[in-house]
Amino acid sequence: MKSETAGAPPAKLAGAPSAISAAVSAASIGGAAGRLGLRLFGRRTAGVDRMAFGLVVLLALASVVGPFVTPYDPFAVETSEALRPPSAAHLLGTDDVGRDVLSRLLAGAGLTLLSAAAIVVLAAVVGIVVASVAALLPRRADEAIMRACDIFMSIPSLVLALGLAAALGPSMLSIIVAMVAASWPSTARLMRGILRETMSSSYVESARILGMSRPRLMLRHVLPNSLDAIYVQASMEISGTIVMISGLAFLGVGAPPPSPDWGSMIAEGQQYTTTAWWISLFPGLAISLGAIAFGLVGDAVRSFVDPSSRRSS
Fold first, then answer.
1. CA atoms of 31 and 24, how far apart (whole Å)
2. What is the pTM of this model?
3. What pLDDT, on a 0 to 100 scale, did the predictor assign at position 50?
4. SS3 94
5. Over the range 189-215, which residues count as b (16 or more CB within 10 Å of their CB) and which as e?
6. Closest to 99 in 3D by CA, of 82, 111, 87, 80
7. Nearest C-alpha neighbor of 39 from the set 293, 273, 235, 300
8. pLDDT beyond 60 at 230
9. What distance separates the 2 farthest-apart alpha carbons in the chain?
10. Burial class for 174, CB neighbours closer than 10 Å (0-12, 13-18, 19+)
11. Residues 234-247: what's their mean pLDDT?
C-alpha cells in the first residue's frame, strides 16, 4: 500500500520544507527571547546582571517619560538661581544660567538614549541589507562591496563620524546620520561572513534542490537563521554608541544650545569644574551608568547566544 506522502502532489512536497522552516524560525526567535528572559530573571542569574537590566529599564522609562515629569522647565533661564548647589529645592543643583540640572538630565535622556538606539538599529538594518544583497550578487560584485566596507572600516569611526557631523552642521540628526555611516560597514562585514557560512548548510542546499529562488531562500532560510550575531553586536554596541554620541555633543557637533543632551551639559559645565562641579558631574555619571548597564546587558546576551563565553555560576 502506498503511503500518503508518496501520493502527495509535488507542489505540496516542495512547499512543506519552507513552511516548516518558517514555523521553526518563528518559534526559535520567540523561544530565544523567553530563554533570555529566564536567564536574566532565573535563580542562577548573577545579581549584577539583574541590576544592570533593572537600570536599563529605568533609563528606558526616563527616556520616554522624562520630558513630562521634570520638576522645572529645563529651558527656563533664572539668573537669580544660577550656580545653586544641590539642595531640597534643586536636588542636583542649577547651571550657570539657573536651569535645573535634574530637569535637564531627564529631558536629555530621550535625546541621548533614543538616539543611541536609533543609530544601532539603523546601522544594523543597513548592514544586513548590504550583506544580503552582496550574498545574492555574483562573486565579483560581492567582493567589490566587501572591499568598499574594508575601506570604510580602515577610517577610525570617531574621526569619520566627527567629520561627517561637522560637515552636516550641528544637530542631533547630523550625529545620527554620521554615526550610522560610520557603523554599518562593520555590521555588513560580520553579517556577510555569517551568511556565507549559513548558505553552505545542508538545509539550505535541500531548499535549493527543491527549486527555491535565491531571494526567497535568503528571506525564508538564510537570513532568519543568521541573526543571532546581530543581536549580540547590537546589544554590545549601544554602550559605546552612548559614549560616542556624548563625545560628539561635547565637541560641539551635536544639537545646538540650549539642547539638554548629556554631552552638551558636560561641555557647558567644564569651566565651572572647581566651583560648580555638579553641572558636569551628574551628566557624566548618567553617561557612565548608562554605558555600564547596557554593556553588562550586552554581555548577558552574548553569554546566552555563545555558551562557551558564559560565566560560571
1. 10
2. 0.78
3. 83
4. strand
5. bbbbebbeebbeeeebeebeeeebeee
6. 82
7. 300
8. yes
9. 96
10. buried
11. 90
Q: CA 182, CA 152: separation in Å to the nearest integer?
A: 7
Nearest-10 crossing angle of helices 262-269, 278-305: 150
- Grid cell locating 224: 532568519
b/e per residue, 239-252, with b = 16+ CB within 10 A? bbbbbbbbbbbbee
Q: Residue 194 corresponds to which cell in the numbers above?
A: 555569517
Could you tell me the three cell numbers for 192? 556577510
Distances in Å between the alpha carbon of 151 and those of 62, 99, 144, 155, 182? Answer: 38, 45, 11, 7, 11
Is 276 within 8 Å of 7 (Cβ atoms)? no
- The sign of the CA dihedral 190, 191, 196, 199 is positive
Per-residue pLDDT at 121: 94
Q: Which residues pair with 94 in a beta bridge?
A: 100
Peptide bond into 74 cis (omega under 30): no
90 φ, ψ (degrees, to nearest 5): -130, 100
Judge whether residue 115 has pLDDT over 50.
yes
Helix pair 47-65, 10-41: axis angle to 10 deg: 100
pLDDT tens-digit series, residues 20-66: 344 434 444 444 445 555 554 554 456 777 888 899 999 999 999 98
Tell me 300's DSSP state: H
Residue 222 CA to residue 237 CA, distance in Å, equals 24
Distance CA 63, CA 153 (A): 31
